[in-house]
Amino acid sequence: MDDWIREKNDYLDSLGPKDRAPARSLSPEEVENLRKLQAEKDERDARIAQEVAKGIWFSASSSTPEGKLCTASFAKLTSEDNGKSGGIVSIMGFQKPKPDAWLIFYGTGIPRPKNVKKIKVELQQDDEPAQTVQVFNYRYQGRAGAVAFSVPGLAAALDGMRDKQSFKLSIDGKTVMAIQWADAAPVIGQLKQCSK
Questions:
Q1: 107-121 burial, b for 16+ CB within 10 Å, e for fewer?
Q2: pLDDT tens across 63-101, in order?
Q3: If 0-12 CB within 10 Å is exposed, 13-18 middle and 19+ buried, where does residue 136 land?
Q4: Which residues are CB-contacts of 59 (< 8 A; sequence separation ≥ 6)?
């Protein structure tokens, strides 16, 4: 067995480059510079993680062949309770007169099917009665799943938005995501401008 392993290792070594690049050691100044860069990156990552743990809004618009697409997203992510508290909520829709718009939730507690499928989700907004709705469910970037609610136009979605709002998503009686946003008024204004 040892001869077989030695033979395989010799074979694999023969496939590699004949002349290996010489190892280069870093000067003390280069090592110190790398430490500073890593410390700056760690500080920036920690600041971003704190902002996202509190909740952060971002918005954008882009031109598409179908027209101008307006999007606003709220992200509040924590590592507590396997991601059921927090995630991302996006409001997305086209500029008038195109009526297509969506309310999309992304979270690690949401199912992640291999292919897009329709499922029933119970959505509760604030203290209003929960509504069971059929939505599209799909995988989103590895560990997260997504559910997309179709909305009758961006204007209708904006009419339903409040400055402070909470959402709870349940599937088969089990909560898969709960999130609350705040300070949405500026974003609502941006989306209204974008949707005109």
A1: bbbbeeeeeeeebeb
A2: 888 888 899 999 997 666 555 567 899 999 888 777 788
A3: middle
A4: 70, 71, 72, 73, 187, 190, 191, 194
